[in-house]
């Protein structure tokens, strides 16, 4: 038996869980908000938040710590390890034009997908580098090494040693490391920034990043998505559908999926496997927009939708309110079809919104299925997963068992599980190939059952309208 901690530094807060190494039981928890938010952040704020979350002796007795942190941030340091500017966070949108510039510079979306499994967008570190080179050239010229938030936090916890490390999961979100080849592309850093820099060593999932001066083991750490998947216990045959304003679908797969269209982003996970991800721009924002139109909140919208019937009396809602990433329709708008006198009722519009959102996510799932990814069950994450209409409609439309985990700090739990794995390997009680077998997340399970045929008929109606409205939109993504 031992005690480990998982630390998750998200864009908004630091959460810490202290766990038993054998059972995964949460013994203690800590939380602190980040004092500063925005596009440019002094990362010392993350350390202040960490210290506040760990107050009251929270880490007493802990033998190892795992770190999870927000992904796609960029910390650019000079030759002395000093930041040349504040950290740029993952949701920074300033690099949109820089991302488009980089796509053209390498020869298009397919060239990037083949090179690193990802097409540049504003969030990727490689796009931030191009923005920095074009917008702040003096700072860019001083950049000698690059880190991401989790890399920097691990480095700080270790006392800023000469060795800098990262893991496969975080590295795969930079735009200059390939999950397929397992190596950096320094030429892409130079393409973006104008010169070569030092990059962190990518270590294995169970490898220690090092030990603190007090002898505390610090594991490799990883990005939030990878840590959450590890904390949930997601494995081969599982997919995760995340419901935010936008949405994402990812699964665990045995190999990297190189997708010339760029629809699939090829991430690595925290265990040595891969996490192919498909993003959609429109998820809960579809429900919120419909609720505003009908003058109600999401709970009332859900109740309205359940008064309707499958197929929403013929209404079909293509939910591309902000354009769409999957399929690649950046300049389109949403579409509502099937309007007849009998269908023009609030409950049918509400039902069409839920069905449209979930059919859009089913499209993303089909991109993965079309590449041979097995999907036997689907984890549904996000506050909207608690809505009765989502739970009622999702299994039949998504075509699989739906699992809704109870709320928990899954990224922090994943970081703690990684710490327990690294500690076990160091002690000779665990192998490099087998992480600790912690219990699966407590969940509610929903089966498609007899509604599957009806749900798939609704889905076919949606696909027919999508193909009529946007013919061939998925030709390069499916199959």
UniProtKB/TrEMBL annotation:
Annotated Carbohydrate kinase FGGY N-terminal domain residues: 4-221
Protein name as it appears in the record: Sugar kinase
Domain of life: Bacteria
One function term, GO molecular function aspect: kinase activity
InterPro entries assigned: ATPase_NBD, Carb_kinase_FGGY, Carb_kinase_FGGY_CS, FGGY_C, FGGY_Carb_Kinase, FGGY_N
Keywords: Carbohydrate metabolism, Kinase, Transferase, Xylose metabolism
Residue ranges occupied by any Carbohydrate kinase FGGY C-terminal domain in the UniProt entry: 241-422
Family to which this protein belongs: Belongs to the FGGY kinase family.
Biological processes, Gene Ontology terms: D-xylose metabolic process
Stored PANTHER family: SUGAR KINASE, XYLULOSE KINASE
Matches recorded under Pfam families: FGGY_C (PF02782), FGGY_N (PF00370)
